[in-house]
Amino acid sequence: MKKTLLAILMLALAGSAFALDVGVVGGSNYGLDRNYGGVTVGQDLGVLGQNFTKFGVEAGFERGTDGLQNLNTWTATGSYFLGKAYGAGFAVKAGVAYIDPEYSRNGWAGRVGAGVSFPITPKVSIGADYAYQFAEAAITKQSGNLLSLNAKYKF
Question: In this structure, are residues 18 and 45 in contact, taking their beta carbons and an 8 Å threshold?
């Protein structure tokens, strides 16, 4: 069910031809021995009208390791654009993640954080995000600080 919902979200985002971002992400859950890499698809909701110009949404998939086991994470994140300074854009973010470890129980986690994005060209940008992930009781080992770097291309 979770995979179907995220696939529908990604297809809906991909179906909209305006301000679609496709990116790669890599990061670490420092202190918890977790490194990961993945892909994201995002949409700037400013195309929907003047009232939504500061909001965005993103869906992603991350594949990582947690000690000796692999884990898959599907994410859905909303963002609110705060503004620009020195050419960089700043946003606050909140979302959910479904975490599916290879050998242990799976479950849900919430994420809150912030990100910065630097445009390289009008279509290419690089960025960094920080998030605190708080997981449900079955997977509390997945709670902690996440730091990620990304590169995105805007269609």
Answer: no
Give the CA angle between residues 139, 104, 113 to the nearest 5°. Answer: 35
**pLDDT (tens digit, 9 = 90+) per residue, 85-137?**
988 999 999 999 998 888 888 899 999 999 999 999 988 889 899 999 998 87
pTM over 0.70: yes
Confidence band of 48 (pLDDT split at 50, 70, 90): very low
Cβ-contact 103, 69 below 8 angstroms = yes
Domains of the chain: 2-154 (2.40.160.20)
